[in-house]
Write a sequence for this structure.
């Protein structure tokens, strides 16, 4: 790397324009993670594929998870601008394919492609902020980014529910077309100053392939459990074994590659490792609240899709509040550790309280989701900034990709594991003496849509009681997982954030 390379700095006004241009891209990527959640029953019925219902979400999350670190690496090599624009185009075309899907397999394939585009929107946008903003001020700007992402993720079910209820579920994809055009136009203008890379480095194609295949197989196995198959089912055991072998090969490849996809030394960095773990856990909690709270309301109170979606509004408001407060305090104090600790302590308390809150207690649900959302908001910008602050600039894209990867992995594993536990508990707690022989999916179908026409009132009441216990224990499990975040936070260093404004090297970008 030449020492004579020119550098480019961004003024405060230019930096604000860049971040504003990225917010639409961030919003798009976050929105599609959850916008289909409330529309799934009607969508799967229209496309005659109820048995594939959960794959519409899982397919998107799996693709996003495996593509995120690769986007970070490609951004380091080819430049952020090119990778962001390619992600927008992929996202646009796949959204059109989703809107026009006539079968569930086509829908799932389109969602997988859409997940690839969504990974680029989120990972590359956050890395650009690290390129142009000093670490100390980065907290404020990451707060804006986190706010846009959080609002998109949690209002997704609300928007999806309203569009499905009053227009058509297809509009949850058509709405992306003007948003993608807006994202492209605003980002193109804002990123004109980012130079094109002149330095070419080798690409670890084998490492990228092994990572993609290994994680995809692992997440497919976990998702199969979440869709009701036994954890010890022979195909699942085979998938676990293959995944472990492929990921072991990936680690071997990364140790020998001259320019690896994920430099393993980053995983030995305590700040990066702890921040990744905290966000992994936080997104398990967020997917738990986003997906399971509306489902619990629909199952136990017979509320409609729009009513269930509206119950998440406090969550969508409290996450950006927490992110904004955390970003502002980081910029003022120059530290992040205490903010992270506050978030990791509050989160398990909120989840445990949710477990014992009745589904129809609106005020208590608002309090619990607001508290949990605020805690997640505290962790979003602090963890991203802590990781970026702990690495050299040449690894900024990979470190940011790891952070985004951890969030996507938490969401993908969270929905698979928690729904698997929910299915198992529903099956366990439903009385064996019912005249009907029902599975967990039968119970959900009956409680949401009255699918079992011959069920008696006593049988329906037994299913409701089973549902109450099952959801309580799932939320308690989620709270127990959240406790790990406290340990991760306490194990991480609290480095002071630098006030030096980064200089973008023109030979590197």
């Amino acid at each position: 790397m030449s020492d004579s390379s020119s550098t480019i700095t961004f003024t405060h006004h230019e930096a604000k324009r860049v971040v504003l241009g990225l917010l639409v891209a961030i919003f798009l990527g976050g929105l599609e993670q959850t916008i289909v959640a409330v529309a799934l029953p009607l969508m799967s019925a229209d496309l005659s594929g109820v048995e594939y219902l959960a794959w519409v979400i899982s397919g998107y999350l799996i693709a996003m998870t495996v593509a995120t670190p690769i986007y970070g690496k490609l951004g380091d090599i080819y430049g952020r601008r090119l990778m962001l624009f390619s992600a927008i185009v992929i996202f646009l075309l796949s959204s059109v394919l989703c809107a026009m899907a006539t079968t569930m397999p086509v829908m799932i394939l389109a969602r997988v492609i859409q997940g690839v585009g969504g990974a680029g929107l989120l990972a590359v946008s956050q890395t650009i902020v690290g390129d142009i903003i000093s670490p100390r001020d980065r907290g404020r700007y990451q707060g804006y980014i986190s706010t846009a992402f959080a609002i998109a993720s949690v209002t997704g079910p609300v928007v999806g529910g309203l569009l499905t209820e009053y227009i058509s579920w297809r509009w949850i994809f058509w709405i992306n077309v003007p948003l993608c055009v807006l994202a492209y136009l605003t980002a193109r203008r804002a990123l004109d100053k980012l130079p094109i890379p002149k330095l070419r480095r080798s690409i670890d194609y084998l490492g990228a392939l092994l990572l993609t295949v290994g994680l995809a197989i692992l997440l497919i196995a976990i998702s199969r459990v979440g869709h009701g198959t036994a954890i010890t089912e022979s195909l699942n055991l085979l998938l676990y074994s293959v995944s472990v072998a492929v990921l072991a090969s990936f680690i071997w490849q990364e140790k020998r590659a001259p320019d690896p996809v994920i430099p393993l030394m980053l995983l030995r960095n305590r700040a990066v490792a702890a921040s990744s773990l905290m966000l992994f856990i936080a997104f398990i909690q967020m997917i738990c609240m986003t997906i399971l709270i509306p489902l619990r309301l629909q199952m136990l109170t017979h509320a409609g899709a729009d009513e269930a979606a509206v119950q998440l509004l406090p969550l969508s408001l409290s996450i950006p509040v927490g992110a904004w407060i955390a970003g502002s305090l980081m910029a003022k104090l120059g530290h992040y550790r205490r903010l992270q600790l506050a978030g990791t302590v509050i989160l398990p308390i909120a989840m445990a309280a949710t477990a014992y809150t009745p589904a129809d207690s609106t005020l208590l649900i608002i309090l619990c989701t607001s508290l949990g959302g605020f805690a997640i908001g505290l962790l979003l910008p602090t963890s991203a900034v802590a990781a970026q602050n702990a690495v050299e600039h040449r690894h900024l894209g990979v470190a940011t990709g790891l952070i985004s990867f951890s969030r996507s992995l938490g969401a993908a594993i969270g929905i698979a594991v928690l729904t698997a536990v929910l299915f198992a508990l529903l099956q366990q707690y439903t009385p064996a003496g019912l005249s009907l022989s029902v599975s967990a999916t039968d119970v959900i179908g009956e409680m949401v849509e009255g699918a079992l026409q011959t069920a008696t009132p006593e049988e329906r009441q037994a299913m409701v009681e089973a549902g109450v216990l099952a959801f309580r224990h799932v939320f308690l499990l989620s709270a127990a997982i959240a406790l790990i975040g406290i340990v991760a936070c306490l194990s991480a260093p609290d480095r002071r954030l630098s006030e030096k404004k980064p200089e973008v090297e023109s030979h590197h970008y």
